[in-house]
Specification:
The protein is mostly beta strands. It contains no helices and two strands.
Length: 46
């Protein structure tokens, strides 16, 4: 089993017509996670 920090990067294209919609990001893990979106840091605790 791996323990420690890991890095995963993925680019996602969001359609222009979703601009006014709320988008939920589901991360299937149990530890605190940092996510960078549009050069801004968001912290997710899960």
């Amino acid at each position: 089993m791996f323990e420690g920090k890991a890095w995963y990067q993925r680019e996602v294209d969001i359609p222009e017509n979703w601009k006014t919609k709320r988008i939920h990001l589901f991360l299937e893990r149990t530890k605190a996670t940092e996510v960078w979106m549009m050069k801004s840091l968001s912290r997710f605790i899960g």
